[in-house]
Amino acid sequence: MAQDSLVQYAYALDEKGALAHISVAKRTALYICPGCKKPLTPVLGEVNAQHFRHADHSCAFESYLHKCAKIAFYHCYIEAISSGTPIKLVLERKITCGDKRLKIFSDQKHRCQKAVPAIYDLTKIFNRAELEKRDRVTGLTPDVMLSDNSSERLCYVEMCVSHPCTPEKIESGIPILEFKIDSVDDIQIILGGSYSMDDWYLRAYNFHPKPKVMSSCSDVVSMDCVEMSLWSLSDSGRLNERVIPLREVDLAENSQINVWPKSVAQSELRSKLGRFLSHVDPDENFPNCLMCKHSSGWEYGYLECQSKGKRIAYTEARTCASYEKEI
User: Fold this and answer.
1) Range of the domain at 185
2) Based on the domain organization, do 52 and 72 belong to the same domain?
3) 222 lies in a domain?
4) Pairwise CA distance, residues 251 & 253, whole Å
5) What b/e readout covers 218-235, taking b as 16+ CB neighbours within 10 angstroms?
């Protein structure tokens, strides 16, 4: 267990108002409690764990921890702006493939989309940080408010020790970063300046990273391997199916008219094949039972013929006296 886990008061404000850890404290320096603003004395013995001690009382630890966390973030952010050091935030962003081959799909379930980590430098988005600054528009006061001098962008930063972010703040629509603080150990996380939505201590509200559209499929988002049925009509009038992966579909020669996912249901396949035949054989040089009003269903080249009362192959239309095209 880390030493900080055994010590309640591991941080204090130094003479400049900066948050100081007990490990860098000096006996002759003056320190103030972030929670109650009373003097703290550094206990720097070699036998017991080093810590800051109140003179005659101990303030509420929750209040102390909450104050330490917000001050830690504030000073970390101000220092990052001054030094040009990034404050990294990893959010989830949707990547959508804009490959023209995806136009073959007519439904949204075949959208080529995936959520991937996206790293943002908060200091490039918000170039100002203010501690306990009241938002004049919403009337709310976050622990730390991030803003941008050249726009109206805002971000609330909240430290949750025992009270999570209020519904009022969440419903304001303002982007919010809420850090869960359980112990003084977590202050080091705040000072690290690198945060991710995958981390247990962070929740983000009202962040909507702009989706990225890629011009073609990649290893990040890919439907390249989806099996596609490519249909053609032979010189003898037979339907031919060739199964190929999406990446091999040549849009210069094929379209939704003759290419669709191999996985489509047989009932949908009948409809698609009917449209395909109307396109490639508009003059009905090759009568096909798929186009006959007396047929129904479709299963691997066979249909139910109401006229003959039996199951037939689609090619029987060529010699059938009852063939009648469905209008």
Assistant:
1) 68-213
2) no
3) no
4) 5
5) eeebbbbebebbbbebee
| Distance (Å, whole) CA 298 – CA 229 | 16
Please tell me whether residue 118 adopts helix, strand or coil conformation: strand
Question: Rounded to two decimals, what is the model's pTM?
Answer: 0.65
Q: What is the pLDDT of residue 215?
A: 66
Domain count, the chain: 3
pLDDT tens for each residue of 267-312 = 889 999 999 999 999 998 999 999 999 999 888 889 999 999 999 9
Burial 148-178 (b: 16+ CB within 10 A, else e): eeeeeebbbbbbbbeeebeeebbebebbbbb
Residues 190, 309 share a domain? no
pLDDT at 1 over 50: no
Q: How many degrees, rounded to 5, is the angle at CA 222 between CA 219 and CA 223?
A: 150
50 and 120 together in one domain: no
Strand partners of residue 113: 96
**pLDDT tens digit sequence for 211-257:** 887 766 655 445 667 889 999 999 999 999 999 988 888 888 888 89
Same-domain check for residues 72 and 182: yes
Per the CB < 8 A criterion, the answer to whether 105 and 261 are in contact is yes
Contact 53, 9 (CB under 8 A): yes
Together in a domain, 202 and 86: yes
Q: How far apart are CA 310 and CA 302, in angstroms?
A: 10
**pLDDT tens across 15-71, in order?**
988 899 998 999 889 999 998 888 998 888 776 778 888 887 778 888 899 999 999
CB count, 10 Å around CB of 129?
Answer: 23
- CB count in 10 Å sphere of residue 309: 8
Check whether residue 187 and residue 262 sit in a common domain: no
Q: Residue 320 and residue 303: Cα distance in Å, rounded?
A: 14
Greatest CA separation for the chain: 110
Domain shared by 257 and 192, yes or no: no
